[in-house]
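Lab notebook, design round three. We kept the backbone fixed and only want residue identities now. Task for the bench partner: fill in a sequence for the structure below.
Input structure tokens:
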């Protein structure tokens, strides 16, 4: 997980969001990366994680407003990624005992997934409910 966290942070700094919402490497402009979300690509619908990459990139640039516009929970997931550094380094240091026990890391991970799914439901169903209420 430490390698994943390092990769996410590095890519957040090396990528940029184009005006058409596609993502490209800063040093290779004009060549956007392919869409990686199968749900968005094939069905035209957003998945729970749609916008997280762009949100991370905007956070790396210091653009909080754009980050929140891309994904409301982007900041929370970025914080979770950053917390991996001290947590995983401490786990490497103290290998003879479990850091924070077994339950807390699992609860944290499942809690993040539950928030991600709840946010997706609100983004997907919320506008339809608001239209019927008004």
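Proposed sequence:
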């Amino acid at each position: 997980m430490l390698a994943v966290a390092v990769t996410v942070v590095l890519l957040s700094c090396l990528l940029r969001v184009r005006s058409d919402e596609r993502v490209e490497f800063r040093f290779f402009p004009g060549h956007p990366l392919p869409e990686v979300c199968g749900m968005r690509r094939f069905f035209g619908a957003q998945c729970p994680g749609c916008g997280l990459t762009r949100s991370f990139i905007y956070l790396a640039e210091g653009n909080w407003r754009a980050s929140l516009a891309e994904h409301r929970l982007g900041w929370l997931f970025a914080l979770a990624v950053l917390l991996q550094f001290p947590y995983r380094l401490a786990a490497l240091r103290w290998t003879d005992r479990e850091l924070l026990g077994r339950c807390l890391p699992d609860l944290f991970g499942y809690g993040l997934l539950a928030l991600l799914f709840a946010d997706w439901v609100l983004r997907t169903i919320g506008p339809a409910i608001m239209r019927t209420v008004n």
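Keep this in mind before ordering anything: The radius of gyration is 17 Å.
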